[in-house]
Amino acid sequence: MDLVPALEEPLKNVLGPPTAKVMAEHLGLHTVGDLLHHYPRRYEERGQLTHLADLPMDEHVTVVAMVADARLLTFASTKAPRGKGQRLEVTITDGSGRLQLVFFGNGVRKPHKELLPGTRAMFAGKVSVFNHRLQLAHPAYELLRGDSDETVETWAGALIPLYPATAKLESWKIGKAIQTVLPNVQEAVDPLPPTLREGRGLVSLPEALLKIHRPHTKADIADARARLKWDEAFVLQVALARRRHADAQLPAVPRRPSPDGLLTAFDDRLPFTLTEGQQKVSREIFDDLATEHPMHRLLQGEVGSGKTMVALRAMLAVVDAGGQAAMLAPTEVLAQQHHRSIVEMMGELAEGGMLGGAEQATKVVLLTGSMGAAARRQALLDLVTGEAGIVIGTHALIEDKVQFHDLGLVVVDEQHRFGVEQRDALRGKGKQPPHLLVMTATPIPRTVAMTVFGDLETSVLDQLPAGRSPIASHVVPAADKPHFLARAWERVREEVQNGHQAYVVCPRIGDDIDEPADPKKAKKSAEDEAEKRPPLAVLDVADQLGKGPLRGLTVEVLHGRMPPDDKDAVMRRFAAGDTHVLVATTVIEVGVNVPNATAMVIMDADRFGVSQLHQLRGRVGRGSAPGLCLLVTEMPEASAARQRLNAVASTLDGFELSRLDLEQRREGDVLGQAQSGARTSLRVLAVIEDEEVIAEAREEAVNVVAADPELTGLPGLRTALDALLDEEREQYLEKG
């Protein structure tokens, strides 16, 4: 969060062009305000040294240690054949271990004079191994005692801040740069309303910035972090609250179902009772649809909790009220699956305008990019005339050619796969903004929902419909215990003998167009042997299974690069029970519903994310027979990947797993489109740990925006908001 014009001074004016260039290129820092918001990663205490025993290989590290020994050696080399080559070896210690530093050639003079035994300093460099010993070659260093005013001044604090640094710019150089701009903190205009700050006992912004960069005690750091977390949470929640407020001002056509219309006819023919959760969420949606402002609701539901049923009833209510509803699915397989299951659920109610169609019936059309020209023309005609009340499709729905008679509701399935622009384009097809229902089967922890989807109201379906069976999950360590894998294929045969079917999921397709493995992602440690081979592929595995452990069973493949008609034919055969085992990529991850499929074997399970594994597993156990999910991996028992798989096997609670997933991936840029791991707009706020701060900030933000939507009385907050919402993020929020 950059601050105010006073802090918008470019760094090149203050620190000189060379330093400013490195800061801009490597740390994304351009102004004085940016630099002041580059907070220390951790702090070293004067009397307490870092643990040399725990140094990571091949990483750039900063250590604080004492020189134990220094020796200048001479040697012969091609450049100095008469034994005139010089090498300085310095051993440093911190009580937990020792580390060798080496300097060569002309680079030995200065350290030879300065790094005397007993000297304490900060050292930065890349950890490497030479002769089976860890070393830093030519490290940069900064002495921690000295007579020059600058050194004494820079390190006067009792705690030494260590900053996120790069090989080109060591932590202490960043510290010195911050020392130069620190007097500017007094210019920082506070974004928090005074009543909020005083009411919560938070320090002022200038004081927080001083304390985070130059703390004297650990209490200073705690004060500063508490305050800066509030800034991040509050400004973000104000942005989202203003978005909700603006949405609430938009006009929309209220859509109330008629008493004896399509929805009533549909409910009357349901062969089961809706769960309490489905009834409650439906009520929330119908209340929203009946208002004169567009609904913006996020429907979260565990895999198999019956979200599609809730969405279908909302669509029928809108059709009842004379409007049309569009459901957007991320893949053709899923769009076809939704179309098939909705037509089946509706029966004669989906045969509007056809012989045998019910009186209240409407037409349900499918629109995908690969349809034949005649079918596509008919579908487009049905939409523009209003003949089709419901359309289900992929992003093909967004194309300019697609016109609606009266679009009243947009349902987006699996939100995280859809770009904001795509949602926006579809919403622009209504005469007035249509109502919006976003569905996801990836459980989102409450704080993430409040942050990432903060402009949507949230409904949660956490009850499974009656008749759903539990899923047993087990890790199959193929490398340690090959007989476990053999047993896995026996279990698949047993399920088939009992009249059921199975999925086998692989990370890759295996045809020639597959992308080559990314060399940057290859890990070097011994435990990652399993990662050196390419991931298992659908085509290879299907072939091996058909000839080997599953010989005699009908094995088919399904992946995203097959022609749509072939994909549909494969899914139909599997749904009809003609295929025993379907070997597929993650194309089956969402929405595929075959109640007779009871077993799933996920090959190279460590290559999938936690939420993805949970999604995949949700494809089995959808009928009355219990489900079985086997996670096959070659990763060693002690590896982080195995711990992750153990966690997935140990719980069916998607919310618990999504927390774990988030903790491992980091939040990513909460407002930007990066899903995870990228540079984040959150610097001290952790979405999972700071749940309380986020919830309280949301409450305060709602009150502030309700009282003063334009924030005219809070110039500091306006400025912070403008800085947070640079152009790209502003558009992102605008498009919602």
List descriptors.
single chain; 26 helices; alpha/beta; 736 residues; 7-stranded parallel β-sheet
Count, helices: 26
Helix content: 25-40%
Averaging pLDDT over every residue, what do you get? 81
- Distance from N terminus to C terminus (CA atoms, Å) equals 21 Å
Low-confidence blocks of residues: 147-157, 514-528, 667-680
Looking across the biggest beta sheet, what order are the strands in? 11-12-10-13-14-9-15
Largest β-sheet summary: 7 strands, parallel
**Helix/strand class:** alpha/beta
Shape: globular
DSSP strand content: 15-25%
Folded structure, characterized:
By secondary structure, the chain is an alpha/beta fold. Helix 20 (564-576) links the parallel strand 18 (555-558) and strand 19. Residues 147-157, 514-528 and 667-680 have low confidence and may be disordered. The relative contact order is 0.10. The protein starts with 10 loop residues before the first helix and ends with a helix. The strands form 4 sheets. Strands 11-12-10-13-14-9-15 form a 7-stranded parallel β-sheet, sandwiched between helices. Strands 16-21-20-17-19-18 form a 6-stranded parallel β-sheet, with helices on both faces. The protein has a 5-stranded mixed beta barrel with strand order 2-3-4-6-5. Helix 8 crosses helix 9 (218-249) and helix 9 packs across helix 25 (715-724). The chain is globular, with a radius of gyration of 31 Å. The chain contains 26 helices and 21 strands.
Task: Summarize the helices and strands and which ones pair or pack.
Blueprint: H1 11-15, H2 17-27, H3 32-36, E1 42-45, E2 60-75, E3 85-93, E4 98-104, H4 109-114, E5 120-130, E6 133-137, E7 140-143, H5 149-154, E8 159-162, H6 171-181, H7 194-199, H8 205-213, H9 218-249, H10 262-268, H11 276-289, E9 296-301, H12 307-320, E10 324-328, H13 332-346, E11 363-367, H14 373-385, E12 388-393, E13 407-413, H15 420-427, E14 435-440, H16 446-452, E15 457-461, E16 471-477, H17 482-497, E17 501-505, H18 529-532, H19 538-547, E18 555-558, H20 564-576, E19 581-584, E20 597-602, H21 610-617, E21 627-633, H22 640-650, H23 654-665, H24 691-707, H25 715-724, H26 727-735
Parallel strand pairs: 4-6, 9-14, 9-15, 10-12, 10-13, 11-12, 13-14, 16-21, 17-19, 17-20, 18-19, 20-21
Antiparallel strand pairs: 1-8, 2-3, 2-5, 3-4, 5-6, 5-7
Helix pairs in contact: 8-9, 9-24, 9-25, 10-12, 11-12, 16-24
